[in-house]
Task: inverse folding
């Protein structure tokens, strides 16, 4: 792990390289501005939400409304986490107008 000073210096070198040779940086990142993330949504979160929703429905049918509401709320939290952690669509591409100006 890099120290704070090393991280600062590395960031400074990256900024300088992007400013000095943006074409090289674009080639090295395959034209992407940010590194790619996971390709699939988390299957475990989806299955967890399905199980909790099933439990909420069963509890609702049995008449345990408070427990059903709590289970539905927990399922919504799991779905929210799955949505927030989902991978982005296409990676953004660098176009010539997005490159920093050369000095």
Result:
């Amino acid at each position: 792990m890099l120290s704070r000073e090393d991280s600062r210096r590395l960031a400074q070198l990256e900024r300088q390289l992007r400013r000095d040779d943006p074409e090289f940086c674009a080639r090295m990142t395959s034209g992407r501005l940010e590194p790619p993330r996971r390709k699939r949504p988390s299957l475990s979160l989806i299955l967890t939400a399905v199980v909790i929703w099933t439990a909420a429905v069963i509890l609702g049918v049995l008449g345990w409304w408070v427990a059903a509401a709590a289970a539905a709320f927990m399922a919504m939290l799991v779905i929210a986490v799955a949505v927030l952690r989902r991978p982005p669509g296409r990676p953004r591409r660098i176009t010539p107008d997005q490159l920093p100006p050369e000095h």
Observations:
- The chain has four helices and no strands.
- The helical segments are 4-20, 22-28, 43-62, 65-84.
- The mean pLDDT is 79.
